[in-house]
Specification:
The protein is α/β, with parallel strands linked by helices and about 270 residues long. It has ten helices and seven strands. The protein has one domain (about 5-270): Thiamin diphosphate (ThDP)-binding fold, Pyr/PP domains (Rossmann fold, 3-Layer(aba) Sandwich). A five-stranded parallel beta sheet has the order 1-2-3-7-6, with helices on both faces. Strands 4-5 form a two-stranded antiparallel ribbon. Strand 4 (about 180) and strand 5 form a beta hairpin. The protein is globular.
């Protein structure tokens, strides 16, 4: 995909997020954190990862793990655009009998690689997947998206130390650095300081990018990793990106999308 096509895909993903959240009715949805990773997910699925809805169990496919599982609407919305299932399925989000739950539940045929959502677990899982691939001499890459608030978890820091030690150069982690978590700002709850310098000192090959700039994301994701280091991408994002009333508004971390706001959101996206 070209850069413009990925941007178009990101818009479709945002519309799908809203469609699914609105369809959930009186059930709240994690909207802000899903919107903040839409451009990252669009770039990975649109032009970086080797995935194919016609061959969902291909052993050489790339693996995507959404460690911040509460942002699952971004993942589901991308999978719709790659034809893993129909857009109509998004209407069933969090409804009884649906495979689209409030946190991802493994369903490889539908493109959902792993069950996630217990924060702090996804990077360790990704390390295991990457380690397995290296041992089996398989060529796939593993991509893990974490939240910056999630980095409060001690298990994340164990993985930060372990991945370089294991020389997992087939692992790419992306931190969605939107500076907000459920109960407030990261700097007030637990200030992580300079993540770039910390992670470089641990042995990661670390890049800091604008998480909404497709060209910057493509440049980092598509460059060949000739070192034995895992790659860390710190993506500076805006929580709720794309809508005037959700950007940097933590009310939309987990909220009900009423029809008035749904209509307003679609109108704003259509103006772009």
């Amino acid at each position: 995909m070209s850069s413009s096509e990925i941007k178009s895909l990101a818009k479709k993903i945002r519309k799908n997020i809203l469609f699914s959240a609105f369809s959930a009715g009186a059930k709240s949805a994690h909207i802000g954190g899903a919107l903040s990773i839409a451009d990252i997910v669009a770039t990975l699925y649109g032009d970086v990862m080797n995935v194919d809805s016609k061959k969902p169990l291909n052993p050489e496919r790339d693996r995507f793990i959404l460690s911040k599982g509460h942002a699952c609407l971004a993942l589901y919305s991308a999978l719709v655009e790659l034809n893993f299932f129909s857009r109509e399925e998004l209407k069933n989000f969090e409804k009884s009998g649906s495979f689209l739950l409030g946190h991802p539940v493994m369903n490889k045929e539908k493109g959902i690689e792993f069950s996630t959502g217990s924060l702090g677990m996804g990077l360790a899982l990704g390390m295991g997947v990457a380690f397995s691939g290296k041992k089996r001499k398989q060529k796939y890459n593993t991509y893990v998206v974490l939240g910056d608030g999630e980095c409060n978890e001690g298990s994340v820091w164990e993985s930060f130390l372990s991945a370089p030690h294991l020389k997992l150069n087939n692992l790419t982690a992306i931190i969605d650095k939107n500076n907000l978590q459920q109960t407030g700002s990261n700097k007030d709850i637990l200030n992580l300081g300079n993540l770039t310098s910390k992670l470089n000192s641990f042995g990661w090959q670390t890049y800091e990018v604008d998480g909404h700039n497709v060209d910057e994301l493509l440049k980092v994701f598509k460059q060949k990793n000739e070192s034995d280091k895992p790659i860390m991408v710190i993506a500076n994002t805006i929580k709720g990106k794309g809508l005037s009333f959700t950007e940097n508004n933590n009310q939309w971390h987990h909220s009900i999308l009423a029809k008035k706001n749904y209509d307003l959101a679609l109108a704003e996206l259509d103006k772009e």
